[in-house]
Each structure stands twice: as structure tokens, then as C-alpha cells.
Amino acid sequence: MQDNQQQAYDRGITIFSPDGRLYQVEYAREAVARGSASVGIRAADGVVLAADRQARSPLIERDSIEKIHTVDDHVGVASAGHVADARQLIDVARQQAQVNHLRYEEPIGVETLTKELTDHIQQYTQTGGARPFGVALLVAGIENGEPRLFETDPSGTPYEWQATAVGGGRDEIMSLLEDEYSPEMDLDGAVGLALESLAAADDDTLDADGVHVATVDVESEQFGALPTEDVAAHLDERDLGGDQ
Amino acid sequence: MNDPIRDPYEPELGSIPAGSEDDETVAKTGTTTVGITTPDGVVIGTDRRASLGGRFVSNKQVQKVEQVHPTAALTLVGSVGGAQSFIRNLRAEASLTETRRDEPLSINALATLAGNFARGGPFFAINPILGGVDDDGSHVYSIDPAGGVMEDDYTVTGSGMQLAHGALERQYEDDLSMAEAKELAARAVNAATERDTGSGNGLVIAEITDEGVDITHHDDVTDLL
Fold first, then answer.
1. Using an 8 Å Cβ cutoff, are A131 and A84 in contact?
2. What are the DSSP calls for A90-139, one per residue?
3. Is the CB of residue A151 less than 8 Å away from at least one CB of chain B?
4. Phi and psi dihedrals of A185, rounded to 5?
5. Mean pLDDT in chain B?
6. How many angstroms separate the CA of residue A167 from the nearest CA in chain B?
7. Which of A11, A102, B84, B209 is 20 to 30 A off residue A171, Cα-Cα?
8. Do B100 and A94 count as a contact with CB atoms less than 8 A apart?
9. Which letter does DSSP use for residue A36 in this model?
10. Residues of B in contact with A101 (CB under 8 A)
């Protein structure tokens, strides 16, 4: 009986343990840690998102592995964890971005968008019968001419970062970012650092097809993928190319 | 959670407002709007007058053509409020679909969407032209208040439509250059502003090609003739 009650704390998402923890939310964070990594870096003139998309099999179409998504012209999202859960959140983000255009005829702020998302995520930690989202997102965009980078986690907490990572290998990536990051770096340097940090979690090699990079800069305010050739050039420059 | 089946006649975001706008205190565009296809793109021309009950000019510099898609524009014809919210809705829905699918809607799909929204309620009291360019070429559609969607090589809507049609019928050809189409659009709007009390106060031209939409204002409708 005692044992059953102990176990029940991690059965219901809405039930606190006696020491104040929500086990299902912690398990959801575990799902994130098992996902492949995504990195975000805020430079002086833009933001870069980079994601590992190693294929399970050479037969899979790489483009069908979705890790980075456009939300609106000026903002995009990278994910780590359950892709299916991420897709639901990304559609919420896309709808909210357009609702902002409808309601105010203005592009949505990156912080506003992030908080719309985290409020949505939070509801799944407090509603009976629900399961938390097993995914963490990096939200990158331009707001009032300034680059912004946010993280959402499965508890529904928003964080703002200069540079961060979600997913597997986060500790290695973070320690590299903490050593190498400088707020003055430009977007080009940030792309290089993002690739270097992804490689750090991956035996120091990447191939250009196995990584997805997208940027948004303060000048164009357009979020978009970096072409594979450009990624390959960055990998060459930093000697991360492996043996292609 | 997302409803798996959405009503195709309603916008996914927001809703269609209810209520009548057939009142003399509501700003109407009166209007002459012209859409012409060419092998290189589409030219849309509109006047710039808004009026109350067709008898008082309430604004002399209305821009009655707005971009709604990377390579498409829609004219405001009828109730200004109805047309403005219609444009916001169409722009949001087109952008949402483009973001989801990673490619712009075809102009036929955009026209169908616009027709479905107009069909959702008779209150909009609008009669816009949709012009755009896609992989299949140049398209002009007129969209009537009940949701009728009709494609044509060139079309006119608004209170000055008979007058503008006179100019178009005589001079339209299917191989006009963009510059010739611009002049023809100006000529058609000019014919209407001379005699239609709901149209006047200059000209706005939208040039649509596969590169995008370029909108220019002209204080005098004869600038381009």
C-alpha cells in the first residue's frame, strides 16, 4: 500500500511528490536529453540555429527529418526531443504569429511568441489526463531590430539566452559555448561556433548533409536555412568535415 | 487541441464578422479597379477615392490595392472596413499555409480561399479583384460578394466598371508589355474618374511579376498617359 502511493506520484501529471516535484515533467526533460542536439547562438547582427540530423539509415530522405522550422518571416524554431510533439507546438506558434498580424497588423515579438508557447506547454503540466510535451524548443528571431534567442522546456518555463543548446550532449556543448562565446561575434562567427559545438557532442566531425543550419539577421529580418554548400564551407574552414 | 476537420468556408484564424454594413455612415470605396494580365505579369490599377453614400468624398488618398501573398495583390472594393479585414484574413491564412508547406499558394488556391471567405457571409459587401503570378503564369480573378470566383484575361470591378470596360475592350491585347498594360490600366481608370462620382483623386498601380509586387502612387491619373 505504502509502495503503491509512492509510485502514484509519477503516474498523474498533476500530482506533486511530497518533496514538491512533478515527476512526469522531469521524465519529459529526459525525453529531451535523449533527442539529438540543437544549438542556438545570438550574435551582434543575428541569430543562428543549428541542429544535428544524423540519419538512422542512408535510405531515409534527409529533408524529411525536421529539426528547424520557420514560424513567420522573422522567426524560427529548433527542437530537441519528440519531433511529433514539436510539430504540434510549431503549429501553435505559426497560428499565434498570424493571429498577431490579424489583431495588430504587426509581426509577433519573439518574447511574446515564446511566452504564448510556454503558457500552452504549462497547461499540459496542470491538466488532468494530459501528458507534458516531450520536447524543448529554441526560438530565434528579430524583435525591434534586435536579435533574440529563447528556450522553452517541458515545464513551460521560458528562458532567454546568449547561446545555448537543448538535447543530447548538452553538457559538452554548453561548456564549449561558455568558453568560446563572445557577445561581439558576428553571425558568420556564430555559425562556425554553432557547428563546432555540435561537432563537440559528436566526436568532432559533422557532414554538411547531417546538420541543418538556419539564420535570421537584423538587416533582412528573414529567417531561412543556410544552403548546404555554405555549411560545407564552414565545416571545411573549421576542419570539422571528417572524411567526406 | 487541433480539430482534424476545419470548415473550409471559415478562416482558420479569427472569424467572419456578422452584421450589415449597408449604411451611409460606412465608408465605401465606390471605386474603379482594373486588373490586366500580360505574358510577364499582372497590372492592377485603382483610383484613390473613398466616399459616404457616393455623395461625399471622405478620403482622397486611399490605397485600394494591397499585397496579400508574395506574388499576388487584392483590391478594396465596397465597404472599406469589410475589405480591410478581408485582406488581413487572406494575408494571414495565405502566410500560414505558405509557412506550413514551405511554398506559396497557387493563385487559383488563393482565389478559391478568397471566394470561400466571401461566401461565408453576405455582409462583407465587397467585390475585389485578385491578381497574381504563379508557376502557371499570370492570373486575374474577380470575386463577387456572394463568393463567385471568375478568372479572366482582364477584369474591372467597382462603380466605374462600365466606363473602364469601354477603354479596355477597345485596347486590350493578349501580348501587352507590362509598360503598355500600365498605360492601359491608367487609361481605363481615367475614363471612369471623368464621369463616375465614386471614383477619382489619382491612381495607384500595382505591378505583379514572379519577382513580387510593386505598388506606386500617382496624384494625377493622367501621369501615365
1. no
2. HHHHHHHHHHHHHHHSSPPPHHHHHHHHHHHHHHTTTSTT-----EEEEE
3. no
4. -60, 150
5. 89
6. 24
7. A11
8. yes
9. P
10. 88, 91-92, 95
User: pLDDT tens digits, residue range A156-166?
Assistant: 999 999 999 99
Rounded average pLDDT over B185-195: 95
Summarize pLDDT for A193-220 with one digit per residue, the tens. 999 999 998 777 788 888 999 999 999 9
CB A51 within 8 A of CB A173: no
| Phi (first) and psi of residue B73, to 5 degrees | -140, 155
Which element (helix H / strand E) includes B35? Answer: strand B33-38
pLDDT reported for residue A241 = 76
Residue type, A95: Q
pTM score, whole prediction? 0.85
Mean pLDDT of the A68-95 span: 97
Give the confidence band of B162 by pLDDT, cuts at 50, 70, 90.
Answer: very high
Question: How many secondary structure helices (H) and strands (E) does chain B include?
Answer: 4, 13
Domain boundaries, chain A: 38-237
pLDDT at A238 exceeding the cut of 70 = yes
What was the ipTM of the complex prediction? 0.76
B165 neighbors B158 (Cβ within 8 angstroms): no
> In this structure, what C-alpha cell is assigned to residue A104?
495588430
Residue ranges of domains in chain B, CATH in brackets: 29-224 (3.60.20.10)
